[in-house]
Design brief:
EC number: 2.7.3.-
CATH topology of the largest domain: Beta-Lactamase
CATH superfamily of the largest domain: PAS domain
CATH architecture of the largest domain: 2-Layer Sandwich
CATH class of the largest domain: Alpha Beta
GO molecular function: kinase activity
Strand order of the largest sheet: 2-1-5-4-3
Shape: rod-shaped
Radius of gyration: 57 Å
Strand content: 5-15%
Organism: Azospirillum baldaniorum
Structural class: alpha+beta
Order of helices and strands: HHHHEEHEEEHHHHEHEEHHEEH
Number of helices: 13
Number of strands: 10
Distance between the termini: 52 Å
Protein name: Two-component sensor histidine kinase protein
Keywords: Coiled coil, Kinase, Membrane, Plasmid, Transferase, Transmembrane, Transmembrane helix, Two-component regulatory system
């Protein structure tokens, strides 16, 4: 059950976040701004109304205290001497409270002694009786004037109850406390009007502030919306351009792969044509020359020897060209088998062993990658033989993150090799173009005094997806 409640709470929170995120900046400001303004208006209005009521109570209590000191205290000085209130003084208080100006405001008056005895009251049945002092009366005996509203629960007349101390005229001593109950109906009406005015003014000011801020935010929101729309259009245009560029790149790569495949087939046909055509004809001419034996020391014998030497050189050159152009038959081999076959073919042709330092290959790669890698290894190994003076080359092949990384290094250091000596018969520039056409890179690392290294990186996963 707890899990269900938690999931329900998470869904509700997610809905609220989604709803809030879907609102515009203007609507978010309206909700938050008006909530803050309403809260501020409520706090300020309540504080102003409370302060008005407190100030009204304070002013009325001060007026009541002046009334007690000025008009009632002279008739109560007998209490300072510990004597009962004389009848003449009580009658004078009755006449004072019966005046129209006083009677319209004051509803009841009670004079209480420090022990709680009622010395005088407009309710004659309370005179002489003793009651426990309440907290406002105790505070009045300490010299404070206490005032507070009293609203009857039966909906009767609201009263303002004031507890004012009565001081002795002969010494600074409180002899009694006057509890005066005033008609607070008009005062309540005045407070209600003051509260209404305070709320109304606060609301108008808050509304004007919210409208002014809304104008600023609405303008900014329109600007942001326009910029967002323009940005979305630019993003869409850039996305379309990116898609177009990606499509063009894919077409270029496909064209490069087709060109590499056509070039490979062309090289094979050229090698086969040279081997089956000029090489066989030159070989046949050599056989005919071997069968023709002119007299020794004659001019024909000299010409025969020169022609045979020239034909043998031509045949050697043609075979060398065929060896460079023609790849071993690796079509039905895996990548590991094709690399191993290329290494064995090189060792068989040159007699120079190859130091294989690493052989970590993927299980399967596209045929073009396999052929290009073997071309690279063959050219690199041939280059080490042509310029390495019989040293054993070092070879490393591995793969990582969908890329085959191959590196061929010379077996000796300290020799200065010029680019002309490095390139060999099948130009490394063409091989580099072939590798780059498949999306890879080739680097020739050659510094004086260091081992020359030929490195290539061939991606194969992207070609699989293509």
């Amino acid at each position: 059950m707890a899990v269900r409640k938690e999931n329900h709470g998470d869904r509700l929170q997610a809905r609220i976040i989604a709803f809030w995120g879907g609102l515009s900046l203007t609507r978010q400001f309206i909700l938050i701004g008006f909530a803050v303004v309403f809260l501020g208006m409520t706090v300020i209005g309540h504080w102003i109304a409370t302060r008005i009521a407190a100030e009204v109570q304070h002013g009325d209590s001060v007026a009541t205290a002046l009334f007690v000191d000025s008009f009632m205290a002279p008739h109560l000085q007998a209490l300072a001497r510990g004597e009962p209130l004389p009848e003449t003084n009580a009658a004078a208080l009755d006449r004072l409270l019966q005046r129209d100006a006083v009677r319209s405001r004051i509803v009841a008056v009670t004079i209480r002694l420090p022990d709680g005895t009622v010395a005088y009251s407009t309710r004659k049945d309370l005179i002489g009786r003793t009651f426990e002092l309440d907290e406002p009366t105790r505070e009045a005996f300490r010299g404070d004037v206490i005032a507070g509203f009293e609203v009857p629960q039966d909906g009767g007349l609201p009263l303002l109850e004031t507890h004012s101390p009565v001081w002795s005229e002969s010494e600074p001593r409180i002899v009694a406390v006057a509890e005066i109950y005033e008609n607070a109906g008009m005062l309540f009406d005045d407070l209600a009007r003051a509260r209404t005015d305070a709320w109304l003014i606060t609301g108008i000011v808050a509304l004007l502030m919210a409208m002014a801020l809304y104008g600023v935010v609405a303008r900014g929101s329109r600007t942001i919306a326009a910029q967002r729309a323009a940005l979305a259009g630019q993003v869409e245009a850039l996305s379309e351009a990116l898609w177009t560029n990606e499509e063009l790149r894919e077409r270029i790569e496909q064209s490069a792969r087709r060109a590499a495949d056509c070039n490979e087939r062309f090289l094979r046909r050229l090698a086969d044509g040279l081997r089956d055509g000029p090489a066989q004809l030159v070989g046949l001419a050599l056989l005919r020359l071997d069968g023709w034996k002119p007299p020794s020391g004659s001019l024909e014998a000299t010409d025969r020897s020169a022609v045979r030497s020239a034909l043998a050189a031509v045949l050697e050159d043609v075979r060398g060209i065929c060896g460079d152009l023609h790849m071993p038959e690796i079509d039905g081999l895996s990548l590991r088998e094709a690399v191993a076959f290329t290494i064995l073919d090189h060792e068989h042709r040159t007699g120079a062993p190859v130091n294989v330092q690493a052989m970590d290959l993927p299980a399967a790669v596209p045929p073009l990658v396999k052929v290009c890698l073997c071309r690279f290894l063959k050219e690199g190994l041939n280059g080490t033989v042509r310029i390495g003076a019989g040293t054993s080359p070092r070879l490393s092949v591995r793969h990582e993150a969908g890329v085959v990384i191959a590196e061929v290094a010379d077996g000796e250091t300290g020799r200065d090799r010029s680019p002309e000596r490095i390139t060999g018969r099948l130009s490394l520039t063409g091989l580099s173009d072939r590798i780059e056409g498949l999306g890879g890179t080739m680097d020739i690392i050659h510094r004086p005094g260091e081992v020359r290294r030929l490195a290539a990186r061939l991606p194969y996963r992207r070609m699989d997806r293509a």
